[in-house]
């Protein structure tokens, strides 16, 4: 279903351009407000924030389901993000080639969060042959819980779990793009805003990696995800 822009006071393309520009490049809301004003579009920075919170998660959900198939060898890890002065956890998974599989912001780093993330990733990806993680007890428990659920559904072969540190360099390197984009933001004021913004940044990263095909400009790929 197409994302609805009903009730918006600006054209769809203006909204999507603003959202994509903020997610992809290191600009603040006030910077973007000024950039748009120079192009004869007057949008308050608070409105820009509302656009991100409303539309970025919707585009991200479609991106998760529309991306090209990834390899069945996964790398999973979590990184830290500051929200209202406290650390929360961005769970991320990529395949062995660095293609993004899924992402999820969580207030906790425990078995429940890891299980939820693995189950979420399985909704939109093929069953992995193996998953490489660090030596986190929570992630280990999460994979074991998912394997137990898969067995209950009649899956005879469990997901192979590899607990090592150095093979996860692929995803640890991939964290850098996310960190580089959010560093100028100096933290988020709410969990909802952080989750929405990070969802959108992940989509811009997936576009950069060519996960929706090549031949289109990045913005056009982003806009087509809203159709």
From TrEMBL:
<keyword id="KW-0238">DNA-binding</keyword>
<dbReference type="Pfam" id="PF13610">
    <property type="entry name" value="DDE_Tnp_IS240"/>
</dbReference>
<dbReference type="InterPro" id="IPR001584">
    <property type="entry name" value="Integrase_cat-core"/>
</dbReference>
<dbReference type="InterPro" id="IPR036397">
    <property type="entry name" value="RNaseH_sf"/>
</dbReference>
<comment type="function">
    <text>Involved in the transposition of the insertion sequence.</text>
</comment>
<feature type="domain" description="Integrase catalytic">
    <location>
        <begin position="53"/>
        <end position="226"/>
    </location>
</feature>
<dbReference type="InterPro" id="IPR032874">
    <property type="entry name" value="DDE_dom"/>
</dbReference>
<dbReference type="InterPro" id="IPR012337">
    <property type="entry name" value="RNaseH-like_sf"/>
</dbReference>
<dbReference type="InterPro" id="IPR047930">
    <property type="entry name" value="Transpos_IS6"/>
</dbReference>
<dbReference type="InterPro" id="IPR052183">
    <property type="entry name" value="IS_Transposase"/>
</dbReference>
<keyword id="KW-0233">DNA recombination</keyword>
<keyword id="KW-0815">Transposition</keyword>
<protein>
    <submittedName>
        <fullName>IS6 family transposase</fullName>
    </submittedName>
</protein>
């Amino acid at each position: 279903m197409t994302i609805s822009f009903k009730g918006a006071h600006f054209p769809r393309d203006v909204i999507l351009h603003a959202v994509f520009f903020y997610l992809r490049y290191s600009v603040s809301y006030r910077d973007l407000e000024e950039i748009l004003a120079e192009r004869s579009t007057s949008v308050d920075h608070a409105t820009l924030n509302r656009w991100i919170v409303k539309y970025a998660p919707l585009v991200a959900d479609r991106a998760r389901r529309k991306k090209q198939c990834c390899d069945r060898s996964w790398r999973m890890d979590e990184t830290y993000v500051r929200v209202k002065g406290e650390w929360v956890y961005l769970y991320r998974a990529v395949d062995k080639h660095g293609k993004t599989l899924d992402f999820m912001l969580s207030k906790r780093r425990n078995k429940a969060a890891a299980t939820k993330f693995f189950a979420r990733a399985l909704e939109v990806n093929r069953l992995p042959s193996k998953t490489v993680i660090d030596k986190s007890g929570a992630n280990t428990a999460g994979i074991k819980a998912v394997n137990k659920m898969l067995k209950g559904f009649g899956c005879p072969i469990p997901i192979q779990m590899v607990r090592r540190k150095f093979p996860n360099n692929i995803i640890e390197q991939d964290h850098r793009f996310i960190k580089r984009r959010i560093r100028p933001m100096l933290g988020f004021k709410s969990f909802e805003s952080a989750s929405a913004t990070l969802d959108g940044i992940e989509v811009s990263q997936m576009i950069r990696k060519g996960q929706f095909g090549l031949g289109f400009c990045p913005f056009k790929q982003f806009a087509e995800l809203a159709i």
